[in-house]
Specification:
The protein is an all-alpha fold. The protein folds into 2 domains: 112 residues, no CATH class; 54 residues, Arc Repressor Mutant, subunit A. The chain has 8 helices and no strands. Helix 1 crosses helix 3 and helix 2 crosses helix 4. The protein is globular and about 45 Å long. The N and C termini lie far apart (38 Å).
């Protein structure tokens, strides 16, 4: 990626989204080791950088999480089809071209993974029941509306909205944030 102001602004946007992407990855890839999760995040960020020209504006969060969902589905299909693949350079990974990853993407990903705030969030979310964890993924990380989340979870709109409100308050308290909505 070049050093134009537009490219730098895009990297700043990705850096802002990176904590959410890390949390999403940890919740979606629970049974995977830390290296696989790190590879996954870097692949998503790599694709977001490589395909920046295709982003036509609008909601960058939704666009990046759409990439993440595609990488996840590709990974699951590949895993079912062939298991882990031995790359020509001797590295084993389900994700493509990580050796070509720009340093800026790798730095963003690693910085977030080492963040104390990120670790505390993951500890708090791990204590939640499955419905609340899905709310965190759908509404908190992916930015879906409460109405969309309610349909996916199987709750009524109002019940889901109240549950999401209470959950946000609880997480703010646990994470030391403000207690107002």
């Amino acid at each position: 990626m070049d050093d134009t102001p537009e490219a730098q602004a895009w990297l700043a946007t990705l850096e802002e989204l990176a904590p959410r992407l890390h949390a999403w990855t940890h919740l979606r890839l629970r049974g995977e080791d830390a290296a696989t999760k790190e590879d996954f995040v870097q692949e998503v960020l790599y694709r977001a950088v490589a395909n920046h020209a295709r982003f036509t504006g609008g909601n960058a969060t939704a666009w990046v999480f759409q990439i993440a969902k595609h990488v996840l589905f590709e990974s699951l299909r590949r895993r079912r089809r062939e298991g882990r693949v031995q790359a020509v350079d001797g590295h084993t990974s389900r994700f493509a071209a990580l050796h070509e990853m720009p340093a800026s993407v790798t730095n963003i990903s690693r910085r977030v993974a080492r963040s104390d705030d990120f670790r505390q969030l993951m500890l708090s979310v791990a204590d939640l029941d499955d419905v609340d964890q899905r709310l965190v993924v759908l509404c908190g990380l992916e930015g879906e509306s409460v109405k969309t989340a309610a349909v996916q979870i199987g709750l009524g709109d109002e019940a889901c909205a109240k549950r999401w409100y209470r959950l946000r308050q609880r997480l703010r308290t646990e994470l030391g944030g403000e207690q107002s909505a």
